[in-house]
Design goal:
Elements lengths: L2 H19 L2 H18 L8 H4 L7 H16 L9
Length: 85
Amino acid sequence: MSVIEHQTTDLEQSIAGIVRELPIEKKREVLDFAQFLESKLMPRPPRLLIEGAWSDLPIDKEGLDKAIDEVRREMWHGFPREDEW
């Protein structure tokens, strides 16, 4: 048995011994936390970029960018800028 395997076995036995002594509600909390940690190890699916989601639709990207810019200008119109303070 390698040193790492031995350390892992000792650690698992220590955890099991502590958990064995806990009340049932605390054991549930330990299980919940262990499942949370396990979920962090699972790979997440890649995020879908909005451009990829729209790639098969007949959307004029340049026109969309212009429309977004116009809406932003309308939304921020009249809002004081830092250089105007």
